[in-house]
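Example (one chain per record):
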Amino acid sequence: MNFSSNDASDNGTSSTTTASTACYVNDPFSIKVARIVAYSVLILASLIGNILIVTLICKYGRARKTINLAVLNMAVANLVITTVYMPRLIPMFLIGTVWLVEGDFGYALCKMVPFLHHVAIIASVLTLLTSGLDTFCAVVFPLKTIFTTKVARLAIFLTWALAIAARLPYLMSLRTKTSKGKQTCGSDLSTLFNNENARDIYYTFLFVMFYVLPWLAIFIFYLIIAIKLKTGKTPLQESTTAARLKELRVKATRNVIKMMIVITLVFLVCWIAYFLAQVAFRKVPCSFRFWRLFLAHCNCAINPVLFVVFDPTVRTGIKDIARKYRASHRLSYVCDTFFSTAATKKQKLSISPTKRKSRASEFSINATTNTTTVGESGRRTLTRRNVGNADDLGIRNQGIEENHNSPNECLSFSTL
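Predicted structure:
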């Protein structure tokens, strides 16, 4: 089942949808296989990495750490892109951008799959923006808790709400269309708004509001943070008695700052071609489409690696899982050794019936001999003990007899 449309759904015109159905179809088979293998590895790596990050943050992350909420939100957005959009690209590399799912279900998929893909992208950009603001507040205003847990959760909700609102026109314009016996999925913003320039206006708005302005704000945030880390002072900051405390808190957030800067730069490098193509091309060339998508989607697999490198919560969770695995592996090894040893002993103890009979007779003879020996030795020992007891009793009886005539009728030390 093909969940793929073409990149015309990203560009917003139905005319390009029909024209672009030939993309990927005429490519050599070896190139098709290479693309499928590359995306299969990418999907697997992204799924494993982001599911691991979500699990570790939910289990080991402290709720009061707002950075953990940002990491969790980024991982969820990556999972949406990986599970909803990436699988539809694999059949597209084989048979082109024909939409094979028909009926109401196919119409619903045509609307939801591209829509959720773009919503997750915008949510990721806004999450990086809120993370930059959180880091900025922690460094510039270290004695004030501005970005609390409640504020962070509200910011996450707003990122998804704004992303959905920004992509609602795109959702409304998506539809399936049959042309020359082939069904395609694409958007037609010009028909929706009854304006030939609707597509250009809409994508220019998205590019400015959700790409240029957020990245400009992120750049300003981290520029001020860099000034703070380098000079120890922030703009308009006066020297106070709490300067030492501020310095210690800034040092404590250095690792978080490095992580967010690296994640932001990697995201920018991976997605810049994708965003620029939406504005630069009305129809993205077929030769550029694969690398545009693949480079952007690589970010979903790279982010979990960056989280492991920089986030102490994720590293702690991985170490704990590894420790539990080693303990369980050691326990299974001990159990296997114990059972193998027990089986060896049982095999040694098992004997044949003839040997059992001979050993039984030997045991009875030995038992009789041992009984006789024990009886004789027992009688000898008893005789010796009787003689000794008689002497003792004689002494004691003599003492009692002699003592019995005494007025006190008690056994004295001199009598013994």
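Caption: The beta strands are 174-179, 182-187.
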